[in-house]
């Protein structure tokens, strides 16, 4: 098994561990979840870098890497919804966006084209990762009963709302770029 695929599997295994830690209502374990989350984000960068540099791209990695990324981010955001930090409708819009982009990629693949991530998708992932860290810190301060002007639900709401608007705008642009392929298949 190639190193990039191992890193993808490690990231996948970290998802339930991070999820479990977030539900334990313990500030020390929230710090551990942040560390593991940041490590998971690093593995995303590392597996892509290694795969490109050492020509270790595989079909498994091409399929699983973006799927694991989406699962990591959406799982953590759904947890924050369950913990009443993020409204459900925002996460559902982000889920819609992911299905839309994945659908467009699938349609394009019928022509034998592999549509990889571009700067917008990578930026969206970075914004979502930062939001994940933000909400983990918000949860940490909530558990510590520490009022914080930066890490509060109102700031978090506007942060995730802005992220959602940017993500949807990027998706609309993605659909626009591939509109000819999409409409030729309808």
Summarize the structure.
This protein is an all-alpha fold and 186 residues long. It has helices at 3-22, 27-53, 59-82, 88-109, 119-143, 153-177, 179-184.
Could you give the topology of this structure?
Elements lengths: L2 H20 L4 H27 L5 H24 L5 H22 L9 H25 L9 H25 L1 H6 L2
Helix pairs in contact: 1-2, 1-3, 2-5, 3-4, 3-5, 4-6, 5-6
Protein architecture, described:
By secondary structure, the protein is mostly helical. It has a single domain (3-184), classed as CDP-alcohol phosphotransferase transmembrane (TM) domain (Four Helix Bundle (Hemerythrin (Met), subunit A), Up-down Bundle). The protein has seven helices and no strands. The termini are far apart. The model has no long low-confidence stretch (mean pLDDT 94).
Q: Which spans have pLDDT < 50 for at least 5 consecutive residues?
A: none
What's the pLDDT, averaged over the residues?
94
> Which percent range fits the helix content?
over 70%
CATH topology-level fold name: Four Helix Bundle (Hemerythrin (Met), subunit A)
Any idea what the CATH superfamily is called?
CDP-alcohol phosphotransferase transmembrane (TM) domain
CATH arch. level architecture = Up-down Bundle
Largest sheet composition: none
Written as H for each helix and E for each strand, in order along the chain, the element string is HHHHHHH
CATH C-level class: Mainly Alpha
Q: What is the distance, rounded to the nearest whole angstrom, between the alpha carbons of the first and last residues?
A: 39 Å
In total, the number of domains comes to 1
